[in-house]
Design a protein that fits this description.
The chain has helices at residues 9-26, 41-52, 80-89, 107-120, 157-166, 181-185, 200-208, and strands at residues 2-6, 31-34, 62-65, 67-70, 96-98, 126-129, 150-154, 175-179, 189-194, 226-231. By secondary structure, the chain is of the alpha/beta class. It is globular. The chain starts with a strand and ends in a 12-residue tail after the last strand. It binds 2-phosphoglycolic acid (PGA). 2-phosphoglycolic acid binds next to helix 5.
Length: 243
Amino acid sequence: MECLIYPTAEELSRHAATRVALTVRTIPDAVLALPTGNTPLGMYREMRGQAAAGNLDLSRARLFALDEFWPLPAGHGGTFAAFLRRNLIDHVRVGAFDHLHSDAPDPVAECDRYAAAIAAAGGIDLAVLGIGRNGHIGYNEPGVAPTRDCLCVDLEEGTRKAAREYFPGFEPPSRGLTMGLRLILSARSVMLMASGTDKAAIIAQAFGGPVTLDVPASLLQQHPDVTIMQDVAAAAEYPCTGR
Ligand code: PGA
């Protein structure tokens, strides 16, 4: 496990974007799993800038959204697909973009479709993750089965509260669709970003504590190629020592 600390969230965002750029320089048609949330906003801004400057080429990359609310009408501004379009995909040329359909009538069938699409693309080269205050990655909430590639989950109240913060005036659904822990752990490379003091405690639990399904991110300790990228505020209780 590699653990990197940056002095500011801006520096973290810039290096995260550069890491994505390096991935697609090495593997132009890389399969990327991409997150939604406050944490990656700066990374997407940097990615737009790097693409405009000719330093990031996603024109052959295959992009897959990590998770999604369910149910919500397609095209609703609160969907993670809309978030990714607003922040990245509407601004840069990408090879392909797929996402979990928030309006799918049958979430299990939709998960099967999505897992099959990712498998057909050759699996995930780089999974870019945030971390929830409860330790979720994607929408794999504490206690969720680690044996699924994609699943429909009940969202914890704290998760919905956090979503209200970045989608003001929006009442999030009580369920979500997400790439499962098995699929995330099968990614060839994983990069987890955390910024701000409100992530410090969960980062310490996830990476300084035992591997437990109660803290889904802790399962990443068993992955052979994980990079934790945090700003100093998030690193306050887990300053990467001994790693
Ligand atoms: P945040 O969400 O970036 O808005 O804190 C992270 C997550 O829930 O994965």
